[in-house]
Amino acid sequence: MTERAKVAVLISGRGSNMAALVYAAKAVDCPYEIILVASNDPEAPGLKLAEAEGIETFVHPHKGLKRSEHDQILHEAVTNVGAEYIALAGYMRILSDDFVSKWQDRMLNIHPSLLPKYKGLDTYQRALDADDTHAGCSVHLVTPELDDGPVLAQTAVTIMPDDTADTLADRVLIAEHQLYPAALTKYVSREADPNWILDQVRDRALALEETHERPSFGTPGWRVGSEKTGKYFAYFSRRHFGETGTSVFVKTSGLDEQSALLDADPDLYFAPKFYGKSGWIAIRLDTGRTDWGHVADSLKKSWRMVAPKRLTKMMDIADDF
Ligand code: GAR
């Protein structure tokens, strides 16, 4: 099995969602492991459970510290153990924008409502007061705005006629315990999902000027210029032409640059069949460690090699300075 994603869980209290994440991670095929449970409260009951399960814990009370100071201490603790993701599980402190931006796209939270409804507290009573038919829970990516990031997964929980906030909370919690491990599993595995990878390439290719997508021999490709005279600057390959894995083909300036890249990083690059002869290079996208900034740069360089002069003229002038 490939290496598991390393996850730190932040809690402030009971820690039942943390426990759900920990127990799901005991399955042999779980793609993540919990390597740290951290809290701002030394009395958080969840800490004892984490210790009993043999998981490293970290506590630092926030009292007397500025928010940014406390968050920096947390950031160091989480980074020191080598965490790649953070799962907030009933962590009841607002995190500073600085901390959130350091963990952008790598920090998840669970919230007991069907977001965007009922951010903040008292979610169950608010759902009851509004005569909603359903309450529920959401797992979302954390952004600076409270309970606001992109929703990754939700479970709706039917409200029963004699529900109180407490009975509803009990049932929503059952749903939370199912949802969080499943959503985290899916999220950390996304780089192994060819459809997710294709979306990433597509977003970056179509962000370039005057581009469109057109399949070529059954695989998605991207062209620059008009529909009629446009030229291809990238192809997506999912075991296409018998290649292994998932990759994107881009143009290099020629065979010299192609062989320099192959020498520099043979795990990342390979010469694609057929296209390789004319200086195209394949960038592997299924290593689980894709640098998407580098992919965007490579697409742009390739785009520039075939784009009509009127689009690249300004860039050429800038380069001459
Ligand atoms: C959970 O219901 C979680 O959704 C909620 O706190 C509870 C923590 O319980 N989180 C929030 O309200 C975040 N805005 P737990 O400590 O047993 O996991």
Instruction: Tell me the distance between the termini.
Output: 51 Å
Total DSSP helices = 10
Regarding CATH, which class of the largest domain?
Alpha Beta
What share of residues are in beta strands?
A: 15-25%
What does the model show?
- This protein has about 325 residues and is of the alpha/beta class.
- Helices cover about 35% and strands about 20% of the residues.
- It contains ten helices and 13 strands.
- Strand 10 and strand 11 form a beta hairpin.
- The chain binds glycinamide ribonucleotide.
- Glycinamide ribonucleotide binds near residues 16, 89, 147, 173 and 176.
List keywords for this structure.
alpha/beta; Rossmann fold; Aspartate Aminotransferase, domain 1; seven-stranded mixed sheet; six-stranded antiparallel sheet; 22% strand; binds glycinamide ribonucleotide
SSE blueprint and pairings:
Blueprint: E1 5-11, H1 16-24, E2 32-39, H2 45-52, E3 57-59, H3 67-80, E4 85-88, H4 97-102, E5 107-111, H5 123-129, E6 134-141, E7 151-158, H6 165-188, H7 194-206, E8 211-213, E9 221-224, E10 231-238, E11 246-251, H8 255-264, E12 269-270, E13 280-284, H9 292-306, H10 309-320
Parallel strand pairs: 1-2, 1-4, 2-3, 4-5
Antiparallel strand pairs: 5-6, 6-7, 8-9, 9-10, 10-11, 11-13, 12-13
